[in-house]
Amino acid sequence: MTSRLAVVGGDDLNEKSKTFVFIGEGHTLGRALVTIMQNFADVMFCSYTISHPNEDKMLLRIQAKEGRAVDILRRGLENLNDVCDHTINTFEQAMKDFRDST
Length: 102
Known about the structure:
This protein has 102 residues and is an alpha+beta fold. It has helices at residues 27-37, 69-101; strands at residues 4-10, 17-23, 43-49, 57-64. The chain is elongated.
């Protein structure tokens, strides 16, 4: 299944607070994104929830101190992508080093 993203809505006109719905995603993406975005200086609050195990969606709430919540989400996804790339590269290099040493 391909994941999709929808915006449920926000609390204010300047778009500092938003709830995003990820269809086809769960705890793996939710926990990783929250862990990354909680370290951003411009994030006041960031959390995710999955309302029921039978529902194939994850809700992610972002409240920004400054800036737009959607920009924080974009930066969080980009950072998570960088972490995944680094993990894959490190693993592949370790496998290559291991094979070369045997």
